[in-house]
Amino acid sequence: MQAGKPSVSAVATKPPSRVQPTKERRLLNGEEALSAAAPAPVSDSTSPTSESSNYRPPSWLGRRHTAETRRKMSEVHKKRKPVPWNKGKNLDPALREKIRAGVVRRNEIELQKKLKKLGLRTREEYDQWRRQQRYSPPRTNRTVSAESRQKISATMRRHWAKPEFRQRNSGRPCSNSTRAKLSRILTNKWALDDDFRNKTIMARSRAPFHGNKGYRHPEHVRRKISASLKAKWQEPEYREAMQKAIQSALSDGVRQQIADTVRKRWQDPHYRDKMKRAFAVRTTQHRQRISNSLKERWKDDDFRKRMDLAYAAYARWRTQTGPLSDEVRTKISETLKRRWADPEFRRQRGVSQSHSRVDQQRVWNEIYQEILRDSPLLGESDKWVAGHDLEVQALQ
């Protein structure tokens, strides 16, 4: 051993000085562990136990990381899954019981603090208070400021803009109790809140598309809607309100707006082609279904009375307005000429008119036969000859 240099064991076993700072004592412990693991020669100039004043702590001691370094460290730790301290350890039952007792004791202390803060005495009272807080009725007198509403709206828009949030919350089925609550709330708002009703109607009318376009309700839903509307139309107040709304909606200004909108839509080639295809695919079964529906409706006395009143009002309006003006006749003529110039329209009208002509001839032949059979001015031979001539004409 060289003279003047103490041994490693002497440095490791030498107790720290009482006047040494806390940081240096921690460094000394680290030096001891390092020396015990891998012995290395220690000089007087670098030893923290040296009496020399040239000792300098490591460069990293007390250094504060920059914001960029802290951000990188945070990202690395976030990517790592937190590992519990007892992962992979097989604890003995005594230690497990000790841990359990400590957790129970800590929970009991926290519970006593809550009871003292709430002015309660037992855990049963605390559980009852929690149930009341959980199922307490909503605060109806609470008002939300305009700024808070804007913040909530912006937050919800930002959430719904995310595809995963939209996919998770779209089409989520609701329970029957939730559906009943929503139905009751919306029914009350539609019945009592005029602003909500008007805003909703305007928003739906101005929307570029309808969410239920092309959707057909199931049969049981259609029956429920039909029964609900029929029941509402039986109420005198609802009937009077709807009649006033229809009459006000059919004013001259509204009719002009509707006409302008329809003309503008028919100027679009795509809309025109779509409507032509829709009219062309009306099959015989479709027409028969419409006919059966109208026949069933005409069997209803209320519907028949309403239609009679409507026809009488239309007849009075026609007598008051008089014949069509020259300007209207010119517009009708130009429209028909333009439509008849289309070869497809001409072909469709020719086919439909040929079928309708045969049907009309058959119907009128039956009417004439009934008239001739019941006429008291003709003899039996004349009736037979007239009916025979009509049948021959129908066959031709």
Can you summarize the main beta sheet? none
Number of strands: 0
Structural class: mainly alpha
Helix residue percentage: over 70%
Overall average residue pLDDT? 74
Order of helices and strands: HHHHHHHHHHHHHHHHHH
Beta-strand proportion: under 5%
Instruction: Give the distance, in angstroms, between the N- and C-terminal Cα atoms.
Output: 141 Å
* Poorly predicted parts: 8-21, 27-51, 375-396
Tally of DSSP helical segments = 18
How would you sum up the global shape?
A: elongated
Computed Rg: 46 Å
Pfam family, one: NUMOD3
GO molecular function: DNA binding
InterPro entries: NUMOD3
Protein name: Nuclease associated modular domain-containing protein
Overall description:
It holds the Pfam family NUMOD3. InterPro entries: NUMOD3. GO terms for molecular function: DNA binding. It contains 18 helices and no strands. The C terminus is likely disordered.
How is the secondary structure organized here?
Elements: H1 8-13, H2 22-37, H3 67-79, H4 93-118, H5 123-134, H6 146-160, H7 163-169, H8 176-192, H9 194-206, H10 219-233, H11 236-249, H12 252-266, H13 269-280, H14 284-298, H15 301-321, H16 326-340, H17 343-374, H18 380-395
